[in-house]
Design goal:
By secondary structure, the protein is an alpha/beta fold. 32% of the residues lie in helices and 18% in strands. It has 9 helices and 11 strands.
């Protein structure tokens, strides 16, 4: 697709790796896609009609009454005939993978990914040009969870992630998303660059990416039409092969000393500006 907007390319990344200590990796189980932890994550899963196989909920000690928030979850679980196990806190602590279960853990059917074509068809059926957020090898669960919250709040049609070298939809992402994971379609593809190329050639998409030295200020860009917004990974930013598929690169002017934004913050700024410009 010919690019007549004459936006420039080039620029460095917004994202910065937060690092981490893997010395206890052998003792810490990998987050599971078939488990949810925390009140928001479990409540939204129930409200969304997600299949829940079993629910562990905190058993108050010393004759105390059940917390009102947990009582509400328990009431909904009983209405839906979900198997409930009342458990002491130490049992939930041992089960928890997020280390912040808030008194409730649910065993659920694994999150299902969708096809991009299904996302596009839904937008078309509603008479809209689709808006996608594409994440290039994001590796931090909390960043992905935050992007899902942003996508849900902004009305993004779907999020695209790669199958390899990227975080998937696990229990930590579910908790970080505060339930948004139940409402935002996520497609997982083999090759991000090839997917962007196909979106442009077959579906008439424009593709933009975030880069600190991008030539187009984020608040001056044309966001109309079918659009994919690409956010680079923590540390590396967008890979060269992905950046080459961008029709234009966006910059976010910053006045601070630390000239860097993490992936979720950059996504939030650009996505809400895009939604504003598309109204």
């Amino acid at each position: 697709m010919k690019d007549n907007r004459n936006y420039g390319k080039g620029g460095r990344k917004f994202d910065r790796s937060s690092g981490g200590n893997n010395s206890f990796k052998a003792e810490t189980p990998e987050p599971s896609a078939d488990r949810l932890e925390g009140r928001n994550a479990v409540t939204e899963a129930i409200n969304a009609g997600r299949e829940i196989n079993k629910l562990w909920i905190l058993e108050p000690s010393g004759g105390q009454r059940l917390d009102p928030g947990l009582a509400k979850i328990l009431d909904e679980a009983n209405k839906r005939k979900i198997v409930v196990i009342r458990s002491p806190r130490n049992v939930l602590d041992r089960m928890s993978q997020t280390h912040n279960h808030q008194g409730v853990i649910a065993a659920v059917a694994s999150h299902e990914y969708v096809e991009i074509d299904d996302i596009l068809k839904k937008a078309e059926s509603e008479g809209r040009k689709p808006l996608l957020v594409v994440l290039d090898e994001l590796k931090d669960s909390y960043n992905l969870g935050s992007v899902l919250r942003i996508a849900d709040a902004a009305g993004v049609d779907g999020v695209v992630i790669p199958k390899h070298r990227s975080i998937g939809l696990d229990s930590v992402v579910a908790k970080a998303s505060a339930g948004a994971i139940e409402y935002v379609p996520v497609a997982r593809v083999t090759n991000i660059a090839q997917t962007l190329r196909e979106l442009k050639e077959k579906h008439g998409f424009w593709v933009c990416g975030t880069a600190a030295e991008g030539s187009t200020p984020y608040d001056k860009a044309d966001y109309k039409g079918a659009l994919a917004i690409v956010i680079g990974s923590e540390g590396e930013g967008m890979r060269d092969s992905v950046q080459k598929e961008c029709d234009f690169l966006l910059s976010i002017p910053m006045a601070g000393t630390v000239n860097s934004l993490n992936a979720a913050v950059a996504a939030g700024i650009v996505v809400f500006e895009a939604v504003k410009g598309r109204r």
